[in-house]
Amino acid sequence: MNIKIKFEDVLVRMGANKYRTKINSNIEEIILESIDIAQKIFKPKFATSIADKKIEGNKIILDNFVIYSKDIFNLLKNSKKVFGMVATVGSSIDEKVTALQNENNTLSAYIYDSIGSVAVEQLVNNICNEIKKTNKTTNRFSVGYGDWTIDNQKEFLKWLAADRIGITLSNSFQMSPKKTVSALLGIL
Q1: Which pLDDT does position 156 carry in this prediction?
Q2: Successive 10-residue mean pLDDT values, the chain, 188 residues
Q3: Bridge partners, residue 45, by sequence
Q4: Residue 186 has what pLDDT?
Q5: What is the distance between the alpha carbons of residues 119 and 162, in angstroms, rounded to a whole number?
Q6: What is the 3-state secondary structure (H, E, C) of the chain?
Q7: Which residue of 28, 36, 82, 140 lies most exposed, with the fewest beta carbons within 10 A?
Q8: Rounded to an integer, what distance in angstroms lies between the CA atom of residue 183 and that of residue 11?
Q9: Cβ(155)–Cβ(86) below 8 Å
Q10: What pLDDT score was predicted for residue 124?
C-alpha cells in the first residue's frame, strides 16, 4: 500500500496547530527532507484475519481467540464478522530514530518518530478504507483501549499470525517494530 506523508500531518503529530503555528524555513526544510528520506526507507507490511463472531456468555470468540471486554462486546453487538489487522512501517524508522538519538540530534529524532507515527496511521487507515469499500463497518478499536486489556495483545497477534510479518511482542506487551498498530473492527 502506498504511503504518502503530508507535511501538515507531521506538524500536527508534532503538536503544532497547522493553521496557527509558524515554522521557520530551516525547520520546514528539515521536515520536508526527513519526509522524503523516510518514505524511501519504509517497509510497510500488514497481516489480517476475518472470523465469524460467536458469543458465549460474556465472551466473544473469533476462531480460537477469545475476548473478554464489555467495550468490544458493545462495539460488535450488530456485527456478524470481525476483521482484525496489524500493520507496521518496519524497523528502519526505529533504527533511524535511535541513530539520531545516539548522535544527540533530538530534533531530527523527534521529526522521524513523528513521521513514522503518521505513516503507520495512514497505513492502517488505508487498510480500513479497503474493507469499507465493500462492507459497512464499525469504528476500529485497539488492544489497550477502554477495558480491552493490553495483555490480550499476545493472543490477538497470534490470531493475526503477526509473526509472519516480523512483529514481535515484549514481556510488557510493546510491539516491535515500534511503529506498529493492531486493531479490529466489526463487519455489519
Answers
A1: 97
A2: 91 90 92 97 97 93 94 95 98 98 98 98 97 96 96 96 97 97 97
A3: 88
A4: 97
A5: 19
A6: CCCCCCHHHHHHHCCCCCCCCCCCHHHHHHHHHHHHHHHHHCCCEEEEEEEECEEECCEEEECCEEECCHHHHHHCCCCCEEEEEEEECCCHHHHHHHHHHHCCCHHHHHHHHHHHHHHHHHHHHHHHHHHHHHCCECCCECCCCCCCCHHHHHHHHHHHCHHHHCCEECCCCCEECCCEEEEEEEEC
A7: 36
A8: 25
A9: no
A10: 97
CB-based contacts of 174, cutoff 8 Å, min separation 6:
none
Q: What is the pLDDT of residue 1?
A: 74
Give every CB contact of residue 131 below 8 A, 6+ residues apart in sequence. 83, 137, 185, 187
Whether a cis peptide bond, with omega within 30° of 0, leads into 44 is no
Task: Report pLDDT for 83.
Answer: 98
Q: Which three cell numbers stand for residue 153?
A: 495483545
pTM of the model: 0.94
Q: How far apart are the first and last CA of the chain?
A: 25
CB 44 within 8 A of CB 89: yes
Q: How far is Cα 176 from Cα 168, in angstroms, rounded to an integer?
A: 5
Cα–Cα distance for residue pair 76/79, rounded to 1 Å: 5
